[in-house]
Specification:
The protein has seven helices and twelve strands. With about 290 residues, the protein is of the alpha+beta class. A hairpin with a 3-residue loop joins β6 and β7.
């Protein structure tokens, strides 16, 4: 049996590469072992990697592919300042929304203390209220917002100052055609007026504003809240149906709901209408253009 020499084994382990050419030039060939071929491939990969790194560093391609890594220190500082500005703006917006949410929930009847937990009632409004001895049916006494704790006025606010602040929306027009059957009475925690009207009668916006609440509440039934210029807010309870969703900008006299008798405290078709300014309850009868 014939045995191959080590030189012949090495020669047989090499790979032969043939480069074909046209008819005028002869073909060329070269041989390389597997080890040599591996070195060539690794060198090619290393060369391509080095060229890629050089291209990323010295051309705009690096900032395009890896902006956070190849951006300069000044650019990073500018990005940090921009993010800090955005965070501050978001925090300010959240603080404003939190304070506004406390006022809104208090007006809707939730027991939210917020910063002070007080119901502020101008003294000029209290002077027009009924005597605490007035008898009221038990089912009607809880129509007003349930706030805790309840205190007497902490700030004096005249009607003239209210009109001066709300010159853009005051006086208000009647939200519904009907008769006022019950007024504001702080002794029984009734923070609005009841306007008796036919079932399904249109309720209109007494002033321009934006709808900030439009949903169901247990005692108020279908309830609507509109924010007006000058930090005024009006509330409409016991609606049969609400016609405008949250975020709708309404104009004076635009239909917003229908008179109903929804909610646990309603005893018949009517509108419970409240007026607030900056967390303070106002008597709507003092600011309506006309009343029946």
């Amino acid at each position: 049996m014939q045995h191959k020499s080590p030189h012949e084994k090495t020669a047989s382990a090499k790979l032969t590469f043939v480069v074909l050419s046209d008819a005028e030039k002869p073909s060329r060939s070269f041989k390389a072992s597997k080890f040599q071929l591996t070195l060539i491939v690794l060198f090619g990969i290393a060369a391509i990697g080095a060229l890629s790194v050089v291209a990323l560093i010295n051309t705009p391609l690096g900032k395009l592919i890896l902006p956070s890594y190849f951006s300069t220190q000044e650019e990073q500082l500018q990005q940090i300042r921009s993010l800090e500005t955005k965070v501050d703006a978001v925090q300010n917006q959240l603080s404003y929304l939190a304070a506004y949410n406390v006022k809104l929930r208090n007006a809707l009847g939730d027991s939210v203390t917020g910063d002070s937990g007080q119901v502020e009632v101008p003294q000029s409004e209290m002077a027009d209220q009924s005597s605490p001895d007035q008898q009221v049916p038990p089912e009607e006494t809880s129509q007003g917002p349930e706030l805790a704790p309840r205190t007497r006025p902490v700030e004096v606010m005249s009607r003239e100052s209210v009109h001066e602040i709300g010159h853009d929306i005051l006086p208000l027009i009647m939200p519904v055609q009907g008769f006022v059957t019950r007024g504001v009475n702080y002794a029984i925690q009734h923070y609005g007026i009841d306007i008796s009207a036919q079932l399904g009668e249109p309720i209109v916006a007494p002033a321009p504003g934006e709808v900030v609440f439009s949903d169901w509440t247990l005692t108020g039934g279908n309830t609507l809240v509109i924010a007006h210029p000058g930090d005024f807010m009006t509330i409409y309870k016991h609606c049969e149906r609400v016609l405008v969703p949250v975020g709708t900008v309404v104009s004076r006299g635009e239909a917003i709901a229908l008179v109903g008798s929804t909610g646990t405290t309603s005893t018949g078709p009517h509108l419970h209408f409240e007026l607030w300014h900056d967390g303070k309850n106002l008597n709507p009868e003092n600011y309506l253009l006309m009343k029946n």
